[in-house]
Amino acid sequence: MKRKPRRKQRISQRNEKLLHLLKFFVKFNLFAIPLYIILLSKFEWAWLEQFVVSIVTPILQLLGYNPTVHDLLISIPIKNGSWGAVINWDCTGWKSMLAFFALIMATEFPLRRKLAGMVLIPVIFVINLLRIVFMFFYVRTFDLANYQTVHAVVWSWGLIATIIVLWLLWLRFDFTKVFKKKRKRRRRR
Fold it and tell me: What pLDDT does 39 receive?
């Protein structure tokens, strides 16, 4: 007779976990609605594309790649001529940043902790910039061999992995504690 309550308790715990998971997925999709709206409306922020160009170009200059810029097109000399990439809306990393935002907001943590997690969004933006610079490095070094594979597979999955790793780090470590320690140090002075 004692087995039935334990079994019911296990089922109850399992149902509770499934309910938490369901809540997470519902909230995640609600916070992802802006992503769907932007995709369907074909909305773009030209200033963000231009901002990415204005950051990537000096980095390429520092690397000695002699980039030329025409609007959103960045070109560099390669072995058999030149190669260029248009920095479009998808190159800005907006989907990754919005997905990370939705992942954080879908959790059950307090708003203060969620807001502290938003400090990782610029990290995603910087990693995306490094992704763009790496693609120029790749083409300059290896020419166009396997470019599509590197661009579509390695970096697309790499950015997804970055989002997941940063989210898992945020889940594991409470960043609000870092801010609390800084405040305590300031008060002591």
Answer: 79
- Alpha-carbon distances, residue 10 vs 4, 7, 18, 21, 23 (angstroms): 10, 5, 12, 16, 20
DSSP character string of 100-153? HHHHHHTSSS-HHHHHHHGGGHHHHHHHHHHHHHHHHHHHHHHTTTTHHHIIII
- The Cβ of residue 124 has, within 10 Å, a number of other Cβ atoms equal to 21
Q: In Å, how far from its chain's centre is CA 145?
A: 27
Q: Report how far residue 103's alpha carbon sits from residue 98's, in angstroms, rounded to the nearest whole number.
A: 9
Give residues with Cβ within 8 angstroms of 59, minimum separation 6: 129, 133
Residue with tokens 């307090």: 110
Residue type, 76: I
DSSP notation for 164-185: HHHHHHHHHS-THHHHHHHHHH
Q: Provide DSSP, 36-64.
A: HHHHHHT---HHHHHHHHHHHHHHHHHTT
Q: Distance between CA atoms of 77 and 81, rounded to whole angstroms?
A: 6
Question: For helices 94-105 and 156-172, what crossing angle results, to 10°?
Answer: 30
3-class DSSP state for residue 172? Answer: helix
Predicted confidence (pLDDT) per residue in 59-109, tens digit: 999 999 999 999 999 999 998 889 999 999 989 999 999 999 999 999 989
